[in-house]
Protein backbone atom coordinates (compact mmCIF):
# COMPACT_ATOMS: atom_id res chain seq x y z
CA UNK A 1 0.00 0.00 0.00
CA UNK A 2 2.84 2.39 0.83
CA UNK A 3 4.51 1.86 -2.56
CA UNK A 4 1.17 2.19 -4.35
CA UNK A 5 0.53 5.54 -2.66
CA UNK A 6 4.06 6.68 -3.47
CA UNK A 7 3.64 5.82 -7.16
CA UNK A 8 0.28 7.60 -7.24
CA UNK A 9 1.71 10.69 -5.56
CA UNK A 10 4.65 10.86 -7.98
CA UNK A 11 2.36 10.33 -10.98
CA UNK A 12 0.11 13.17 -9.82
CA UNK A 13 3.10 15.45 -9.22
CA UNK A 14 4.48 14.78 -12.70
CA UNK A 15 1.12 15.26 -14.46
CA UNK A 16 -0.65 17.90 -12.39
CA UNK A 17 0.41 20.74 -14.69
CA UNK A 18 -1.59 19.16 -17.54
CA UNK A 19 -4.86 18.82 -15.63
CA UNK A 20 -7.71 20.65 -17.29
CA UNK A 21 -5.75 21.39 -20.47
CA UNK A 22 -8.24 20.99 -23.35
CA UNK A 23 -5.53 20.92 -26.03
CA UNK A 24 -2.62 19.14 -24.39
CA UNK A 25 -1.87 16.82 -27.34
CA UNK A 26 -3.74 16.00 -30.52
CA UNK A 27 -3.90 12.22 -30.15
CA UNK A 28 -5.69 11.90 -26.82
CA UNK A 29 -7.86 14.94 -27.50
CA UNK A 30 -9.03 13.08 -30.60
CA UNK A 31 -9.71 9.93 -28.58
CA UNK A 32 -11.74 12.00 -26.13
CA UNK A 33 -13.62 13.63 -29.03
CA UNK A 34 -14.51 10.20 -30.41
CA UNK A 35 -15.57 9.02 -26.95
CA UNK A 36 -17.92 11.98 -26.65
CA UNK A 37 -19.30 11.41 -30.16
CA UNK A 38 -20.06 7.77 -29.31
CA UNK A 39 -22.51 9.01 -26.67
CA UNK A 40 -24.43 10.66 -29.51
CA UNK A 41 -24.50 7.56 -31.68
CA UNK A 42 -21.27 7.91 -33.65
CA UNK A 43 -19.74 4.58 -34.72
CA UNK A 44 -15.93 4.43 -34.88
CA UNK A 45 -14.56 3.90 -38.41
CA UNK A 46 -17.98 4.57 -39.95
CA UNK A 47 -18.81 8.04 -38.62
CA UNK A 48 -15.33 8.98 -37.40
CA UNK A 49 -12.31 7.19 -38.79
CA UNK A 50 -8.93 6.15 -37.38
CA UNK A 51 -6.60 3.14 -37.24
CA UNK A 52 -6.76 2.65 -33.47
CA UNK A 53 -8.78 -0.35 -32.23
CA UNK A 54 -12.29 0.00 -30.88
CA UNK A 55 -11.26 -0.72 -27.29
CA UNK A 56 -9.33 2.55 -27.02
CA UNK A 57 -12.37 4.57 -28.06
CA UNK A 58 -14.58 2.52 -25.75
CA UNK A 59 -12.24 3.35 -22.87
CA UNK A 60 -12.67 7.05 -23.58
CA UNK A 61 -16.41 6.46 -24.00
CA UNK A 62 -16.50 5.13 -20.44
CA UNK A 63 -14.46 8.03 -19.10
CA UNK A 64 -16.55 10.68 -20.87
CA UNK A 65 -19.66 9.07 -19.40
CA UNK A 66 -18.36 10.33 -16.05
CA UNK A 67 -17.37 13.78 -17.31
CA UNK A 68 -16.87 15.45 -20.67
CA UNK A 69 -14.07 17.60 -19.24
CA UNK A 70 -10.47 16.71 -20.20
CA UNK A 71 -9.44 16.41 -16.56
CA UNK A 72 -11.49 13.18 -16.40
CA UNK A 73 -9.27 11.24 -18.81
CA UNK A 74 -6.17 13.01 -17.44
CA UNK A 75 -6.90 11.76 -13.93
CA UNK A 76 -7.73 8.30 -15.25
CA UNK A 77 -4.45 8.11 -17.19
CA UNK A 78 -2.62 9.20 -14.03
CA UNK A 79 -4.14 6.24 -12.21
CA UNK A 80 -3.17 3.88 -15.02
CA UNK A 81 0.42 5.17 -15.06
CA UNK A 82 0.74 4.78 -11.28
CA UNK A 83 -0.80 1.29 -11.39
CA UNK A 84 1.61 0.26 -14.17
CA UNK A 85 4.55 1.48 -12.08
CA UNK A 86 3.23 -0.58 -9.15
CA UNK A 87 3.00 -3.73 -11.30
CA UNK A 88 6.51 -3.07 -12.63
CA UNK A 89 7.63 -2.89 -9.02
CA UNK A 90 5.93 -6.19 -8.20
CA UNK A 91 7.67 -7.94 -11.09
CA UNK A 92 11.10 -6.47 -10.33
CA UNK A 93 10.65 -7.26 -6.65
CA UNK A 94 10.53 -10.99 -7.51
CA UNK A 95 14.18 -10.92 -8.52
CA UNK A 96 15.73 -7.85 -6.86
CA UNK A 97 13.86 -7.06 -3.69
CA UNK A 98 11.81 -4.10 -2.59
CA UNK A 99 14.27 -1.34 -3.48
CA UNK A 100 14.80 -2.72 -6.98
CA UNK A 101 11.06 -2.87 -7.53
CA UNK A 102 10.41 0.57 -6.07
CA UNK A 103 13.12 2.27 -8.11
CA UNK A 104 12.11 0.44 -11.32
CA UNK A 105 8.55 1.76 -10.97
CA UNK A 106 9.79 5.28 -10.28
CA UNK A 107 12.11 5.15 -13.29
CA UNK A 108 9.11 4.29 -15.48
CA UNK A 109 7.14 7.27 -14.19
CA UNK A 110 10.08 9.64 -14.54
CA UNK A 111 10.63 8.68 -18.15
CA UNK A 112 7.04 8.92 -19.37
CA UNK A 113 7.40 12.56 -20.33
CA UNK A 114 10.63 11.85 -22.20
CA UNK A 115 8.70 9.35 -24.34
CA UNK A 116 5.69 11.68 -24.68
CA UNK A 117 3.57 9.42 -22.52
CA UNK A 118 2.55 11.97 -19.93
CA UNK A 119 -1.04 12.21 -21.17
CA UNK A 120 -3.50 9.67 -22.53
CA UNK A 121 -1.54 7.99 -25.31
CA UNK A 122 -2.66 4.43 -26.10
CA UNK A 123 0.36 2.70 -24.46
CA UNK A 124 -0.28 4.50 -21.17
CA UNK A 125 -3.51 2.51 -20.98
CA UNK A 126 -2.52 -0.88 -22.39
CA UNK A 127 0.88 -1.03 -20.66
CA UNK A 128 -1.07 -1.77 -17.48
CA UNK A 129 -2.87 -4.72 -19.11
CA UNK A 130 0.34 -6.18 -20.56
CA UNK A 131 2.38 -5.66 -17.38
CA UNK A 132 -0.34 -7.24 -15.22
CA UNK A 133 -0.57 -10.18 -17.63
CA UNK A 134 3.21 -10.61 -17.37
CA UNK A 135 3.04 -10.59 -13.57
CA UNK A 136 0.29 -13.22 -13.57
CA UNK A 137 2.20 -15.48 -15.97
CA UNK A 138 5.32 -15.25 -13.81
CA UNK A 139 3.30 -16.02 -10.69
CA UNK A 140 1.86 -19.09 -12.42
CA UNK A 141 5.19 -20.48 -13.65
CA UNK A 142 5.57 -23.16 -10.94
CA UNK A 143 1.95 -24.25 -11.27
CA UNK A 144 2.31 -24.58 -15.02
CA UNK A 145 5.44 -26.67 -14.68
CA UNK A 146 3.53 -29.05 -12.42
CA UNK A 147 0.62 -29.26 -14.86
CA UNK A 148 -1.78 -27.10 -12.82
CA UNK A 149 -3.61 -24.35 -14.70
CA UNK A 150 -5.07 -21.87 -12.26
CA UNK A 151 -6.95 -18.65 -12.83
CA UNK A 152 -3.84 -16.55 -13.32
CA UNK A 153 -3.02 -17.73 -16.84
CA UNK A 154 -6.61 -17.40 -17.98
CA UNK A 155 -6.75 -13.88 -16.55
CA UNK A 156 -3.44 -13.03 -18.23
CA UNK A 157 -4.75 -14.12 -21.63
CA UNK A 158 -7.93 -12.12 -21.12
CA UNK A 159 -5.90 -9.03 -20.20
CA UNK A 160 -3.74 -9.55 -23.27
CA UNK A 161 -6.86 -9.72 -25.42
CA UNK A 162 -8.05 -6.42 -23.95
CA UNK A 163 -4.64 -4.83 -24.64
CA UNK A 164 -4.87 -5.79 -28.32
CA UNK A 165 -8.21 -3.97 -28.58
CA UNK A 166 -6.44 -0.79 -27.44
CA UNK A 167 -3.46 -1.00 -29.82
CA UNK A 168 -2.74 -3.70 -32.40
CA UNK A 169 1.02 -3.65 -31.81
CA UNK A 170 0.56 -5.08 -28.31
CA UNK A 171 -0.15 -8.36 -30.11
CA UNK A 172 3.58 -9.10 -30.15
CA UNK A 173 3.98 -8.70 -26.38
CA UNK A 174 0.85 -10.71 -25.69
CA UNK A 175 2.05 -13.44 -28.05
CA UNK A 176 5.33 -13.64 -26.14
CA UNK A 177 3.51 -14.04 -22.84
CA UNK A 178 1.41 -16.81 -24.39
CA UNK A 179 4.50 -18.53 -25.78
CA UNK A 180 6.28 -18.32 -22.43
CA UNK A 181 3.28 -19.73 -20.57
CA UNK A 182 2.88 -22.48 -23.17
CA UNK A 183 6.56 -23.42 -22.87
CA UNK A 184 6.34 -23.70 -19.10
CA UNK A 185 3.13 -25.73 -19.37
CA UNK A 186 4.54 -28.01 -22.07
CA UNK A 187 7.23 -29.18 -19.64
CA UNK A 188 4.57 -30.55 -17.29
CA UNK A 189 3.77 -34.28 -17.05
CA UNK A 190 0.25 -33.89 -18.47
CA UNK A 191 -0.84 -35.66 -21.64
CA UNK A 192 -0.07 -33.89 -24.92
CA UNK A 193 -3.74 -33.65 -25.83
CA UNK A 194 -4.56 -31.88 -22.57
CA UNK A 195 -1.71 -29.46 -23.13
CA UNK A 196 -2.83 -28.64 -26.66
CA UNK A 197 -6.43 -28.10 -25.54
CA UNK A 198 -5.36 -25.71 -22.79
CA UNK A 199 -3.00 -23.72 -25.02
CA UNK A 200 -5.69 -23.48 -27.71
CA UNK A 201 -8.08 -22.22 -25.04
CA UNK A 202 -5.61 -19.51 -24.04
CA UNK A 203 -5.21 -18.40 -27.66
CA UNK A 204 -8.97 -18.34 -28.17
CA UNK A 205 -9.52 -16.28 -25.04
CA UNK A 206 -6.84 -13.79 -26.10
CA UNK A 207 -8.36 -13.41 -29.54
CA UNK A 208 -11.97 -13.29 -28.32
CA UNK A 209 -12.29 -9.51 -27.66
CA UNK A 210 -11.02 -8.57 -31.13
CA UNK A 211 -13.08 -11.29 -32.80
CA UNK A 212 -16.20 -10.14 -30.95
CA UNK A 213 -15.68 -6.54 -32.07
CA UNK A 214 -15.07 -7.62 -35.66
CA UNK A 215 -18.14 -9.85 -35.60
CA UNK A 216 -20.21 -6.92 -34.39
CA UNK A 217 -19.11 -4.81 -37.34
CA UNK A 218 -19.80 -7.67 -39.75
CA UNK A 219 -23.34 -8.00 -38.39
CA UNK A 220 -23.89 -4.26 -38.86
CA UNK A 221 -22.68 -4.46 -42.45
CA UNK A 222 -19.49 -2.51 -41.81
CA UNK A 223 -17.06 -5.41 -41.54
CA UNK A 224 -15.02 -4.29 -44.56
CA UNK A 225 -14.57 -0.80 -43.10
CA UNK A 226 -13.46 -2.22 -39.75
CA UNK A 227 -11.02 -4.67 -41.39
CA UNK A 228 -9.49 -1.92 -43.52
CA UNK A 229 -9.02 0.32 -40.47
CA UNK A 230 -7.42 -2.46 -38.42
CA UNK A 231 -5.25 -4.04 -41.11
CA UNK A 232 -5.36 -2.47 -44.56
CA UNK A 233 -4.78 1.12 -43.52
CA UNK A 234 -1.71 0.20 -41.50
CA UNK A 235 -0.21 -1.55 -44.52
CA UNK A 236 -1.03 1.23 -46.97
CA UNK A 237 0.32 4.19 -45.00
CA UNK A 238 3.14 5.96 -46.80
CA UNK A 239 6.55 5.98 -45.14
CA UNK A 240 8.27 9.32 -44.50
CA UNK A 241 11.90 8.09 -44.30
CA UNK A 242 13.55 11.37 -43.34
CA UNK A 243 11.26 12.21 -40.45
CA UNK A 244 11.19 8.60 -39.29
CA UNK A 245 14.99 8.41 -39.28
CA UNK A 246 15.24 11.58 -37.20
CA UNK A 247 12.62 10.35 -34.72
CA UNK A 248 14.32 6.94 -34.52
CA UNK A 249 17.60 8.63 -33.60
CA UNK A 250 15.87 10.73 -30.94
CA UNK A 251 14.19 7.56 -29.64
CA UNK A 252 17.55 5.79 -29.42
CA UNK A 253 19.04 8.68 -27.41
CA UNK A 254 15.94 8.81 -25.19
CA UNK A 255 16.21 5.10 -24.34
CA UNK A 256 19.99 5.16 -23.84
CA UNK A 257 19.88 5.55 -20.01
CA UNK A 258 17.65 2.48 -19.74
CA UNK A 259 19.93 0.54 -22.07
CA UNK A 260 22.84 1.45 -19.81
CA UNK A 261 20.90 0.25 -16.75
CA UNK A 262 20.18 -3.01 -18.57
CA UNK A 263 23.85 -3.59 -19.30
CA UNK A 264 24.85 -2.80 -15.72
CA UNK A 265 22.14 -5.14 -14.41
CA UNK A 266 23.14 -8.16 -16.52
CA UNK A 267 25.59 -9.60 -13.93
CA UNK A 268 22.82 -9.57 -11.30
CA UNK A 269 20.19 -11.24 -13.48
CA UNK A 270 19.03 -14.78 -12.92
CA UNK A 271 18.59 -17.16 -15.82
CA UNK A 272 14.80 -17.07 -15.64
CA UNK A 273 14.83 -13.28 -15.55
CA UNK A 274 17.14 -12.97 -18.56
CA UNK A 275 15.08 -15.31 -20.71
CA UNK A 276 11.75 -13.75 -19.83
CA UNK A 277 12.87 -10.12 -20.21
CA UNK A 278 14.85 -10.76 -23.38
CA UNK A 279 11.79 -12.28 -25.04
CA UNK A 280 9.62 -9.42 -23.80
CA UNK A 281 12.04 -6.78 -25.12
CA UNK A 282 12.22 -8.48 -28.50
CA UNK A 283 8.41 -8.64 -28.67
CA UNK A 284 8.04 -4.97 -27.71
CA UNK A 285 10.70 -4.08 -30.30
CA UNK A 286 8.81 -5.98 -33.00
CA UNK A 287 5.70 -4.02 -32.08
CA UNK A 288 7.67 -0.80 -32.55
CA UNK A 289 9.10 -1.91 -35.90
CA UNK A 290 5.71 -3.08 -37.19
CA UNK A 291 4.53 0.50 -37.77
CA UNK A 292 5.78 2.30 -40.89
CA UNK A 293 6.64 5.66 -39.29
CA UNK A 294 8.33 6.25 -35.95
CA UNK A 295 6.93 8.58 -33.31
CA UNK A 296 8.54 8.98 -29.92
CA UNK A 297 5.57 7.66 -27.95
CA UNK A 298 5.80 4.37 -29.86
CA UNK A 299 8.67 3.53 -27.48
CA UNK A 300 6.38 3.59 -24.43
CA UNK A 301 5.75 -0.21 -24.39
CA UNK A 302 9.51 -0.84 -24.34
CA UNK A 303 9.82 1.22 -21.16
CA UNK A 304 8.02 -1.45 -19.14
CA UNK A 305 10.45 -4.37 -19.66
CA UNK A 306 13.40 -1.95 -19.72
CA UNK A 307 12.43 -0.56 -16.32
CA UNK A 308 12.24 -4.08 -14.92
CA UNK A 309 15.51 -5.07 -16.60
CA UNK A 310 17.32 -2.21 -14.84
CA UNK A 311 16.19 -3.31 -11.39
CA UNK A 312 19.34 -5.37 -10.82
CA UNK A 313 21.47 -2.22 -10.74
CA UNK A 314 18.78 -0.07 -9.11
CA UNK A 315 18.67 -2.56 -6.22
CA UNK A 316 22.24 -1.72 -5.20
CA UNK A 317 22.70 -0.02 -1.82
CA UNK A 318 24.58 2.92 -3.33
CA UNK A 319 24.26 2.36 -7.07
CA UNK A 320 20.45 2.33 -6.98
CA UNK A 321 19.86 5.77 -5.40
CA UNK A 322 22.67 7.27 -7.47
CA UNK A 323 21.28 5.88 -10.73
CA UNK A 324 17.75 7.02 -9.92
CA UNK A 325 19.04 10.50 -9.04
CA UNK A 326 20.85 10.72 -12.37
CA UNK A 327 17.71 9.63 -14.19
CA UNK A 328 15.69 12.27 -12.36
CA UNK A 329 18.21 14.95 -13.32
CA UNK A 330 18.08 13.83 -16.94
CA UNK A 331 14.28 13.75 -16.89
CA UNK A 332 14.04 17.27 -15.48
CA UNK A 333 16.88 18.87 -17.45
CA UNK A 334 14.45 20.21 -20.07
CA UNK A 335 10.91 19.71 -18.86
CA UNK A 336 7.54 21.42 -18.84
CA UNK A 337 6.27 19.29 -15.96
CA UNK A 338 6.23 22.28 -13.63
CA UNK A 339 4.83 24.78 -16.15
CA UNK A 340 1.44 25.18 -14.50
CA UNK A 341 0.63 28.26 -16.63
CA UNK A 342 0.58 26.17 -19.80
CA UNK A 343 -2.86 24.68 -19.13
CA UNK A 344 -4.26 28.15 -18.38
CA UNK A 345 -2.89 29.52 -21.67
CA UNK A 346 -4.31 26.55 -23.51
CA UNK A 347 -7.74 26.97 -21.91
CA UNK A 348 -7.76 30.67 -22.79
CA UNK A 349 -6.81 29.99 -26.42
CA UNK A 350 -9.47 27.29 -26.86
CA UNK A 351 -12.08 29.55 -25.25
CA UNK A 352 -11.19 32.31 -27.69
CA UNK A 353 -11.51 29.95 -30.65
CA UNK A 354 -14.85 28.70 -29.33
CA UNK A 355 -16.14 32.28 -28.98
CA UNK A 356 -15.03 33.12 -32.50
CA UNK A 357 -16.91 30.14 -33.94
CA UNK A 358 -20.04 30.68 -31.84
CA UNK A 359 -20.26 34.43 -32.43
CA UNK A 360 -20.32 33.91 -36.21
CA UNK A 361 -22.41 30.75 -36.24
CA UNK A 362 -25.26 31.11 -38.72
CA UNK A 363 -26.32 27.49 -38.50
CA UNK A 364 -24.17 26.33 -41.39
CA UNK A 365 -21.55 23.55 -41.22
CA UNK A 366 -18.27 23.95 -39.35
CA UNK A 367 -15.21 22.53 -41.13
CA UNK A 368 -12.07 22.06 -39.01
CA UNK A 369 -9.50 21.26 -41.67
CA UNK A 370 -6.19 21.47 -39.82
CA UNK A 371 -6.93 22.65 -36.31
CA UNK A 372 -8.34 21.65 -32.92
CA UNK A 373 -11.06 19.15 -33.83
CA UNK A 374 -12.48 19.32 -30.29
CA UNK A 375 -14.15 22.50 -31.52
CA UNK A 376 -16.84 20.24 -33.00
CA UNK A 377 -18.21 19.09 -29.61
CA UNK A 378 -17.29 22.37 -27.90
CA UNK A 379 -19.50 24.34 -30.29
CA UNK A 380 -22.19 21.68 -30.78
CA UNK A 381 -21.44 21.07 -34.46
CA UNK A 382 -21.61 17.72 -36.23
CA UNK A 383 -18.65 16.10 -37.94
CA UNK A 384 -18.72 17.07 -41.61
CA UNK A 385 -16.59 14.04 -42.52
CA UNK A 386 -15.44 10.81 -40.86
CA UNK A 387 -11.90 12.16 -41.40
CA UNK A 388 -12.01 14.34 -38.28
CA UNK A 389 -8.40 13.89 -37.19
CA UNK A 390 -6.50 16.74 -38.85
CA UNK A 391 -3.57 14.76 -40.31
CA UNK A 392 -5.97 12.45 -42.14
CA UNK A 393 -6.88 15.39 -44.36
CA UNK A 394 -3.85 17.66 -44.27
CA UNK A 395 -0.82 15.34 -44.10
CA UNK A 396 0.63 13.80 -47.24
CA UNK A 397 1.46 10.40 -45.73
CA UNK A 398 -2.22 10.01 -44.76
CA UNK A 399 -3.51 10.57 -48.28
CA UNK A 400 -6.16 7.96 -49.19
CA UNK A 401 -5.13 5.72 -46.28
CA UNK A 402 -8.72 5.32 -45.10
CA UNK A 403 -11.50 3.69 -47.11
CA UNK A 404 -12.41 7.20 -48.27
CA UNK A 405 -10.77 9.39 -50.89
CA UNK A 406 -9.07 12.27 -49.08
CA UNK A 407 -9.56 14.73 -51.91
CA UNK A 408 -13.05 13.39 -52.51
CA UNK A 409 -14.01 14.08 -48.89
CA UNK A 410 -12.64 17.63 -49.05
CA UNK A 411 -14.53 18.33 -52.26
CA UNK A 412 -17.72 16.88 -50.76
CA UNK A 413 -17.42 19.02 -47.62
CA UNK A 414 -16.68 22.19 -49.58
CA UNK A 415 -19.71 21.44 -51.77
CA UNK A 416 -21.83 21.69 -48.60
CA UNK A 417 -20.68 25.33 -48.39
CA UNK A 418 -19.42 25.38 -44.78
CA UNK A 419 -20.07 28.73 -43.13
CA UNK A 420 -17.08 28.51 -40.76
CA UNK A 421 -13.66 27.08 -41.49
CA UNK A 422 -10.87 26.51 -38.96
CA UNK A 423 -7.29 25.85 -40.04
CA UNK A 424 -3.72 26.58 -39.01
CA UNK A 425 -2.09 29.66 -40.52
CA UNK A 426 0.77 27.42 -41.61
CA UNK A 427 0.61 23.63 -42.12
CA UNK A 428 1.14 21.92 -38.77
CA UNK A 429 2.66 18.67 -40.02
CA UNK A 430 4.65 17.65 -43.04
CA UNK A 431 4.67 16.46 -45.66
CA UNK A 432 1.74 18.65 -46.64
CA UNK A 433 -1.13 17.26 -48.66
CA UNK A 434 -1.25 20.12 -51.14
CA UNK A 435 -4.00 18.34 -53.04
CA UNK A 436 -6.41 19.19 -50.22
CA UNK A 437 -4.68 22.27 -48.81
CA UNK A 438 -5.00 24.32 -52.02
CA UNK A 439 -8.78 24.04 -52.50
CA UNK A 440 -9.48 24.62 -48.78
CA UNK A 441 -7.39 27.80 -48.70
CA UNK A 442 -8.91 28.95 -51.96
CA UNK A 443 -12.40 28.46 -50.52
CA UNK A 444 -11.50 30.47 -47.42
CA UNK A 445 -9.95 33.35 -49.36
CA UNK A 446 -12.75 33.45 -51.91
CA UNK A 447 -15.79 33.01 -49.68
CA UNK A 448 -14.94 33.77 -46.05
CA UNK A 449 -13.67 36.46 -43.72
CA UNK A 450 -10.80 36.01 -41.26
CA UNK A 451 -12.44 36.73 -37.88
CA UNK A 452 -9.84 35.38 -35.44
CA UNK A 453 -6.18 34.43 -35.35
CA UNK A 454 -5.26 32.71 -32.09
CA UNK A 455 -1.87 31.50 -30.87
CA UNK A 456 -2.88 28.06 -29.58
CA UNK A 457 -0.44 26.07 -27.41
CA UNK A 458 -0.07 22.32 -27.31
CA UNK A 459 2.37 20.63 -24.94
CA UNK A 460 5.08 20.24 -27.57
CA UNK A 461 4.59 23.39 -29.65
CA UNK A 462 2.38 26.40 -30.37
CA UNK A 463 0.48 27.02 -33.57
CA UNK A 464 -1.49 29.97 -34.87
CA UNK A 465 -5.05 28.90 -35.67
CA UNK A 466 -7.26 30.93 -37.99
CA UNK A 467 -11.04 31.08 -37.90
CA UNK A 468 -12.63 31.96 -41.22
CA UNK A 469 -16.33 32.75 -40.89
CA UNK A 470 -19.27 34.50 -42.55
CA UNK A 471 -18.57 32.33 -45.58
CA UNK A 472 -20.75 32.78 -48.65
CA UNK A 473 -21.86 36.21 -47.39
CA UNK A 474 -18.99 38.14 -48.86
CA UNK A 475 -15.71 39.09 -47.26
Description:
The protein has 475 residues and is mainly alpha-helical. The protein folds into 2 domains: 2-332, no CATH class; 341-469, no CATH class. The protein is 64% helix and 6% strand. The protein is built from 20 helices and 4 strands. It has a 4-stranded mixed β-sheet with strand order 1-2-4-3, sandwiched between helices. Helix 4 (70-111) crosses helix 5 (122-139), helix 5 packs parallel to helix 8 (170-186) and helix 9 packs across helix 10 (223-236). The longest helix is centred in the N-terminal third of the chain and has 42 residues, at 70-111. It is globular, with a radius of gyration of 24 Å. It starts with a helix and ends in a 6-residue tail after the last strand.
Give the topology, please.
Layout: H1 2-15, H2 26-38, H3 54-66, H4 70-111, H5 122-139, H6 141-145, H7 151-164, H8 170-186, H9 192-219, H10 223-236, H11 241-265, H12 271-289, H13 300-309, H14 311-314, H15 319-332, H16 341-359, E1 366-370, H17 375-379, H18 390-394, H19 406-415, E2 420-424, H20 434-447, E3 449-457, E4 462-469
Parallel strand pairs: 1-2
Antiparallel strand pairs: 2-4, 3-4
